[in-house]
Please model this.
Amino acid sequence: MAGGGEVCYNWLNYVRPEEAGPFRREIMRKKLLLAVLTTALCLSSGPARGQTGAGAALPGLAPSGADAEKDILHLNTIGAFSAGFVLQAYGYIGVLADVLSKEVYPPDLVRTMLGETITYMRNVNAQLLKYQSGPPIAPGDLEFIAGIMEIINHLIAEAEALSSFTQTKSDSDLRRYDEARGNAWKNIKKTFKVK
Model:
């Protein structure tokens, strides 16, 4: 392959665990779990997060009939997209760390890609904050949205530390990256009830 195709082939190429760096091993372990979680959350047809049955909501706050069904659909859609977004961002940042450690992409390109990712994550958090402070939402749904926002904050910290590492190669940036990544994964497990 010529041009950018070689880069794609290189980072997608299989690496045996004993040959992989720490970033690659982490991705290899969690790749399957992320795929399963994303699929399960996106295909879920149950009630919105925090609700106990179809159409359940806070007494006195719930719209009726078609409006209630539309609200449930909106909450389920927001939940599925939010879950998919944070899981994909978690994986993507890990892949960028991996390609940086394997010197597949130059540090400047990785930093640019991380900057774009940070911007997207901040925009998603801003929209979730608007939604969270909008019309009344069931407490379980508010808790879920707050959990997603917390995960995004950890992902932003992770991406910022990795972006800084592309320039400094410092142990302190690497420690910040590892800590933020660990916190993001801990909150993903908590929010999505992963054991």
Observations:
- The radius of gyration is 19 Å.
- The first helix runs from residue 4 to 12.
